[in-house]
Amino acid sequence: MAKLTKEEVKHVAHLARLAITDEEAEKFAQQLGKITDFAEQLNELDTTNVEPTSHVLPIVNVLREDVAQKGLNRDLMMLNVKDQEAGQVKVPPILED
Known about the structure:
The chain is mainly alpha-helical. The protein has helices spanning 6-15, 22-40, 74-78, and strands at residues 84-85, 88-89. The protein contains 3 helices and 2 strands. The chain starts with 5 loop residues before the first helix and ends in an 8-residue tail after the last strand. InterPro entries: Asp/Glu-ADT_sf_sub_c (IPR036113), GatC (IPR003837).
């Protein structure tokens, strides 16, 4: 198992735009090394007859059929609008000329 070096941790921190001290880099190198060592234990398992999966549970999309429905009455909805023009809601401009 390859031990992560302090320089590798600092390099990854730099790529992630994280500022870490030498002490933090050393601490993270030890912690990440333990994590990768633990994950390496999975290589000891016999997976000969195990099919690859992307998810452990069968997932099926449950979608309702898309059916057009009558919308709300526009004239009734426009009664709640503060400012309107040509049947549409008028809002203040967000871009200046």
